[in-house]
Amino acid sequence: MGARSGFLAAVLAAFVISGLFTGHPEAAWPLAQLDDYLLNILILAGINVVLATSLNIVNGHTGQFSLGHAGFMAVGAYGSAALTQINGKACLAALSFLGPCAQGGLFVCALLFGAALAALAGLAVGLPSLRLRGDYLAIVTLGFGEIIRVVFQNTEAVGGARGLTGIPPQTTLGWTWAVAALCIYCVSALVNSTYGRGFLAVRDDEIAAEAMGINPTRYKVTAFVVGAFFAGLAGALYAHLIGYISPEGFTFLKSVDVVVMVILGGMGSTVGVAFAAVGLTVLNELLRQAEQYRMVAFSLLLIVLMITRPQGLLGGMGRFFSRKGGNP
Amino acid sequence: MLPLLGVFACKKSPDAGSLDVIPVGEFASLTGATASFGQSSHKGTQMAIDEVNAAGGVLGKKLKLITEDDQSRPGEAATVVRKMLSRDKIVALLGEVASSRSLEAAPLCQQAGIPMISPASTNPKVTEVGDFVFRVCFIDPFQGTVLSKFALSKGWKKVAVLTDVKQDYSVGLSQYFKKHFTANGGEIVGEQSYSSGDKDFKAQLTAIKGSQPDAVVASGYYTETGLISLQARELQVNAPLLGGDGWDSPSLVEVGGKAIEGSFFSNHFSVEDPAPAIQGFLKKYRTKFGAEPDAMSALGYDSAMILVDAMKRAGTSEGPKLKAAIASTKDFAAVTGKITLNAERNADKSAVMLEVKGGQFRYVETVAP
Question: By C-alpha distance, which of A265, A261, A193 is closest to A226?
């Protein structure tokens, strides 16, 4: 591990440890004075960073077009809520040996459980569908996202169309940005590794990559599973932020929001996509003064940006941010 | 990131904490999928607040209505409500029409100790969140029961149910209709479902046709019901349709035309009701907006009026006392009927049945709780 990743790991560990003990790592932080609204925006921005950078592995680095990210997010959200809300008391009792850390411990377990379920879902979709390319794959993933949503809609055990209420609001700024840091680290470490060159090879030319002994399907499935894992984490964080989830929150439009962040940030640029995720979240709030013209202003800005910088904010500038000098 | 924080930090509302106004928050879906509901309820709320201010305000102060748009999007409601609670220091929150968005806001208000009154969220779970959350509309179990009572009184014994599985509202309505209807000697001869946004209902309607029902309960919103009625008549399904307050929109007749004639739905109030409270409201609304009010405007108006009434009785706008005053609302003569808030913080009041006749919604009868 280089100095940068060492630093990242230390920050991460600090967050997780303080989070485990107090459940509120930011309490010891200067940002504690922030009001609830600002805190909420920063948390939402963090969740969006996780969503966008994880979709970037699939859409950006591996060059596949997935429109089903909201579906994986839903799996993570419902999966984590299954531990903290539906079976909350039983799970808390099982973790009572942790003493004061039981609540935090359960939250971590729930996050990981939701993410693992999402990764499994990613594997289940990826295996049969990733033999397809381009538009075909987009449609398959779109269909899959809808299937997941409709399944939750019709499952009474998770609240059906009425949604699931009473999820403990445990997502804090510290947790969110710890996950965001972990996600950014994992994605950049993965893509910059020797193994990761395979993703870029598949993106640039699938046939040539295959001729060099790379198994494109395997790389695509890997990218998909990693992307789904982090989308699941984001979903779990979202569920524990709002405290209420319904299938309505994970529609195709949510997937499109994430795709917009990826394209705006520059496909394949981790830093660019993370900036775009934060930027779009904040912009949405700044434009609140425009009232009903907000979406007009928002869309206009997107159009102007895409015309002036079709490669995205930081697309094609990867060189400046990459350790190894290659395209990240 | 830090410069961005700076921008937000400077955006404090100038009126926050000011002494001569009482800030009241409202969140509504002014844009997005259910914009028509949000716009209506907002107009009603705004009118009520303006009226109170014109009459000198409450507790010697003017009310200041702070309205935020949640774009009909999940997640957005929680953000705007957090904003109003922490930035604008609102003393009470009015909203939302859609239950899913009220459910996001309710825990926040409960935690902050700020009373919240929803004008039209019918999902029972909304007020179950806590003792600071109220509503001025009736809830799905009641509306489902009203429809069932009405069907039985019409002598309809065989009814088919068509549910929009995407809308918790529709699912709830169908569920409680079936419960009451089968318990009282009715028979559900067919159950079909669709999802909001569908355009073709022929498969479901063909299946329903085979069971020859006396009536068809279409518990979804007006957006699909118009199309359902057209396609039902095309397929020679001539049984009347029955629905809930989600039908209440001029678009129902615009789309359904002749096909929707002779169908019935339950609603919160009727413009034909001669009660003075309703006629007075109608006159003011027509003068102010030059349009006919719908149930959402009436409910939006009532939610604000109940809040003002409680403020007067409490003599303060302070959270816990205001909450107690709202909870003790009894026989308040509102536009949508005499409202008493029960122990579950839901409104006990009557519903009206309307018939679509000659392109208008005609008053049929009032069904007591």
Answer: A193
Looking only at Cα atoms, what is the longest distance across chain B?
Answer: 69
| Record: contact B100-A246, CB cut-off 8 A | yes
Q: How confident is the model at residue B93 (pLDDT cuts 50, 70, 90)?
A: very high
**Taking the model in full, what pTM does it have?**
0.80
In a domain, B329, yes or no: yes
Q: Which residues of B touch A38 (CB under 8 A)?
A: 5, 8-9, 86
B113 and B32 within one domain = yes
From chain A, pick out residues whose CB is under 8 angstroms from the CB of B79.
37, 40-41, 44, 285
Cα–Cα distance measured from residue B235 to residue B54, given in angstroms and rounded to the nearest whole number: 55
What is the pLDDT, as a whole number, of residue A319? 45
Residues of B in contact with A291 (CB under 8 A): 30, 69
Residue B308 included in any domain: yes
Is residue B358 assigned to a domain? no
What is the domain range of residue B125? 9-138+275-349
ipTM greater than 0.90: no
How many CB atoms within 10 Å of residue A277? 30
- Residue A16 pLDDT: 59
**What's residue A17's pLDDT?**
54
Query: What's the pLDDT at B9?
Result: 45
Interface check B257 vs A, CB under 8 A: no
In whole angstroms, give the CA distance from residue B88 to residue B66.
8
